[in-house]
Predict the structure.
Amino acid sequence: MEIRTRSARRSYRTLVVAASAALLGVLLTPTGAQGAERRQGVHQTVDRPSAAEIRKPPKPPRTRESRPVHSYADAIRESVWVDTGLDGDGDGRTDRVAVDIVRPGEPAGQGRKIPVIMDASPYYSCCGRGNESQKKTYDADGDPLSFPLHYDNYFVPRGYAFVAVDLTGTSRSDGCTDVGGRSDVQSAKAVVDWLNGRAHAYADRTGTARVQADWTTGATGMIGKSYDGTIANGVAATGVEGLKTIVPIAAITSWYDYYFAQGAPLYDSGPEWLSDYVESPGARGRCQAVQQRLIDEAPRSGDWTDLWSERDYVRDASKVKASVFAIHGMQDLNVRTKHLGQWWDALADAGVERKIWLSQTGHVDPFDFRRTDWVPTLHRWFDHYLLGYDNGIDREPVADIERAPDQWSTDQVWPPSATDATTLRPGRGAAPGVGTLGQTPAAPGTTETFTDDPRLGETDWAADIDRSTPAKSGFLTRPLSRDLRLSGSSTVTVTATPSTSTAHLSAVLVDLGPDTIRDYTASGEGITTLTGRTCWGPSTTADSSCYLETAARTADVDHTVFSRGWADLGTYASAGHGRPLTPGKPYTLTIDLAASDHVVPAGHRLALIIGGTDKGLIDPPSTTPALTLDLAGTSAKLPLVGGAEAFTRATTGAAPPHSAPRESRPNGVAEPRRTPPIPGDRSR
């Protein structure tokens, strides 16, 4: 979907192409002079130049930028407690959240005000942030000494304040963690309000001495990965004044969709597990009522409740006033890209200015998969939206997409303007369960049958795509004569007759052909952590700006699952309420697949696989059904660049000589492993 605009906003689609460039990346070893800097160049290449709307942009001209002219060592480091206006723990006093601040001293001494970069997180004491699990530290008086990540080191010398907020119920804050609910969001929104003179803060957790944020312009940008980015989405969806931009990285947009996929449970626990994991010891004792609500109002049946409505930010996308720079791994099996796709489309409907990076990684921060481009791009983004500099970043291509490990392309709009939802249909092949995928509907009465086997999943199905196996039905194109690009979100409509009263369905899209990809199921989810370090700004003895380098961890494969979706067939009549099925009765259901951007190269085949339980990714139903697919009532609506015409061109004509199907069992990445809900990222 292209960006649509409201009258007060400019559309990206009318703006010219230019590339983000590295401006002031600091690359030093720990033994080098900390704080010294040198410029870095852009690392941008274009893969498969025949794919539509992929181009290599020119380097942009020099433009105004913030410079590291302020002392990091002499920066003001302080803590305040902001009143949220809520009493989540029911102790008779409104909750205060701890806010740790580091800001340059020179502007304050000169009477100049500065903008704020803010990361509101539940992880500052329980789990740590970033690839090295950093936590905040304090001196003997309780004043902040070190802040996780590079934001403070890099941006404070450039005239920004960095603000690290402990969400309610965590670390040094009052209240209870309610996992994306009103308390979580309000605890961060209240800080934005305080920065803009609309809320009260105090010098300590229980005192009465007020503290004013008279040092800031109020212009705030929120950033964060995972839970932190999720809170940024939630605060933006309140429409709070003063929040100028958000940078959500691998972030949730609807907590229901984090725990369920159209009624099918994705984890064997609900939000109460995560609440207990991140809460401070004191909060666990006083927040039993909140914990119980998270259990009672989030039933494992997958039914939609008011609890989920409160945690659905997509429905309030029309309130968003901030620009959005979204980053997501297309193989993120923790926070799946369905979150990104539905948020992106809703923001487009609201006319929100947006930018996007899509990597081949799993649940990974761009600092760890594209560091030398990420930091200067983020620098330019904040300079534009928080300082008001006209540096051209709002006129550059909207999308950066990783085509192969460390190889990137750009698109002026995303999905590309030539993208069209195109209906493909399964057909019966020469062997049971090995069918065709094309544009011609199957004859009425054509069926395929499979039996749910919870021991198997998408990697098993894809490996056996050319063989009749009892646990899946696969449908394949012929080897393509041209590249075929899918860009955006797909849906698969299934008409199925179950043999039992419960059934779960999975639909996956597969690129069948050899490739080298990031190994997203391995430890690190597509990256390897090295021993050398790069430094991003000045350091102090307590807070180093130097971080372990990373490199792409790759795998040579013969197939790639690039999009997937799941559903409980019992939600056929209502997406928010499951019903028992009548054995022998057909039901029709549309499954939403995760957003993606993938080029199936000439010589490869595109496959749609429909199965039952996707091992490690959804929980099995209470029965073990056989399912009969009515192929005439089954179809896939795919976002093809070039639409139906592109599909016709790609599936006619001679394929490259190497396109013959392999007779040996193909190799893929390891099967996805079940992980606990965030913060259960795979270790390095």
